[in-house]
Write the structure tokens for this entry.
Amino acid sequence: MQNKNKLDEKPKKKPRKTILGAFFTREEPDKEYLPELKDQWASMEKGKRVKFIIGAIVGLVIFIAALVLAYMVISRIIS
């Protein structure tokens, strides 16, 4: 009986958005995301948290360095 109820509760289909509409409309917030994220963060050990933060910072530095390098290459090609 419960399986039949689950089948009846199909997720609602979202209407297709236009390209312009995608820029001006807001998505519905996911109410399960933030509590789940907080649970995952709380379950991480201190060492794993530090590795996560260091990895995020290193990734940001690499991304910024790639942008600067691309800018320098393009500016040298143009001049």
